[in-house]
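User: Okay, second chain of the day. Same drill as before: sequence in, structure tokens out.
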Amino acid sequence: MGAKRRLREYIYHLLVAIDQLFNAITGGAADETLSSRTYRGARLAQQPKTRWKIL
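Assistant: Same drill. Structure tokens below.
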């Protein structure tokens, strides 16, 4: 595996970890990304809250 690919994967995993951390800080599950939480809040809820529609 080349150094560029390893760096790219490292950056990708770092960004996902930051996304998960932000989601956990704002009250979501620790291993879920904010975009996943937004989708569930906007599409899968019976009566979605306005904040999920905006995001």
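The helical segments are 3-25, 34-44, 50-54.

User: Thanks, on to the next one.
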